[in-house]
Structure formats: C-alpha cells, structure tokens
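Q: Hi! Curious about what DUF6316 domain-containing protein looks like structurally. Here's the sequence.
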Amino acid sequence: MDTQRRTGEQGPAPFRSSRYFCVGGKWYFTTREGFDSGPFASRERAEVGLRRFLHVVKLLPEEQQIH
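A: Let's find out. The predicted structure is below.
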C-alpha cells in the first residue's frame, strides 16, 4: 500500500492500491478518476501505457486537465 501524501492532501493518507491489475491474463491500469485502460499484453506494457496517458494529460490546457 502506498502511504505517501500527495500535494494538497490533508489528514491521514487514504488507502491506495496498485494502478495495475490483471484480468484473464491481460493487464490494465486505472486512474484516480476511475478510468480503466487496456488490455495490454504485460504489466510492463501497461506501465508504458500509463506513462503515455499521464504525458498527454500534462499537455492539455489547465481547464481540460483531469483533477
């Protein structure tokens, strides 16, 4: 479990689980907002997919970014 605090969080750190999960041998990642993406052939590919997703989100204008 990740117990690190994120910017702006107050109080005890909430429970966090892995962003990656496997269903039927296929890997997925999930975002804080509940968006699941996949399937990917491996966890490593799901990790690359999440990095790409986060890169694209950072390129969006501030008013369109996911919070």
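A: A fun detail: The mean pLDDT is 83.
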